[in-house]
Amino acid sequence: MADHVLALRVHTDRLLHTAETLTDPGAPSLCDGWTRGHVLTHLARNAEAVGRLADWAVTGTPQEMYPGGTAARDARIEEGARRPVGELRQDLVATAQALEPRLAALAGELASPQVQMRGGLEVDATQLPFLRLREVVLHHADLAAGFTLAEVEEELLRELVDDAVARLQRSDDAPGLELVADEGDRWTVGDGLARVEGPLAGVLLWLARRETGGVRSEGAPPELPRGA
Fold first, then answer.
1. Hey, how many other C-beta atoms are within 10 angstroms of the C-beta on 225?
2. Max CA-CA distance within the chain?
3. For residue range 129-161, what is the model confidence (pLDDT) as tens digits?
4. Which of 44, 43, 16 is nearest to 145 (CA)?
5. Residue 179 forms beta bridges with which residues?
6. Where in the chain is the domain with CATH 3.30.1050.20?
7. Sequence-ordered list of residues with C-beta below 8 angstroms from that of 127, at least 6 positions apart, any chain
8. What's the CATH code, domain 2-147?
9. Which of 2, 46, 152, 193 places its Cα 20 to 30 Å from the Cα of 103?
10. What is the CA radius of gyration of the chain?
11. What is the CATH number of domain 154-217?
């Protein structure tokens, strides 16, 4: 967990640096239907959400990750996305700063070692720094503002692909895949029938965002289920 907390600090700083360069929050992002303003707003609200779960773990008092559920979460993102870029930056900075000590508190004794994510998925509270790190790294690339997954450290890319493959394996609709990274890593989903190759960054971008430009396969890569 300590390594994830440190990596989160590094990647949050990188994200904030990119946010400082943005002038057009209405420009499209890599997230289907979302602008950069949507992505930045989501990252701010996610910092608050992860902070609530960290508080739950420390105090033992259950909290909703997103009060009001998915509909309320989506409405807050939609409303916040229209703000001026300066407001978006300030929100991102303030929420990131507020989250840091709450994640650090997870290193102590926990009243609730497990917490519940949106959708009811239970996770170990010590996973929260990694889950926030995943959001920061992927959505930083989603801004389409210069930063790409190719700039992410190889070991972290490997962890993120491991995580994406594990989520795909839990889906009943996942195609049979053999994933082969140029760095030498290999993963199998189901019967491993379709082979998809590429650098770790390209494999992750395909798994996370269905972008096929960074991977290779015989014919088009198979369709991946939504939400996996």
1. 11
2. 52
3. 999 999 999 999 999 999 999 999 999 999 999
4. 16
5. 187, 196
6. 154-217
7. none
8. 1.20.120.450
9. 152
10. 18
11. 3.30.1050.20
**Does the reported pTM lie above 0.70?**
yes
Look at residues 208, 57, 204 and name the one whose alpha carbon lies nearest to residue 122: 57
**Could you tell me which residues come within 8 angstroms of residue 17 by beta carbon, excluding any fewer than 6 positions away?**
none
The torsion angles phi and psi of 31, rounded to 5 degrees, stand at -85, 125
CB 187 within 8 Å of CB 195: no
Strands 194-198 and 177-181: parallel
Token match 């490997």: residue? Answer: 158
| Closest to 73 (Cα-Cα) out of 48, 56, 100 | 48
Instruction: Quick: pLDDT tens for 66-117.
Output: 999 999 999 999 999 999 999 999 999 999 999 999 999 999 999 999 999 9
Q: What is the pLDDT of residues 6-34, one digit of tens each?
A: 999 999 999 999 999 999 999 999 999 99
Look-up: residue for tokens 């289907």? 32
Are the C-beta atoms of residues 164 and 188 closer than 8 Å to each other? Answer: no
Residues in the chain: 228
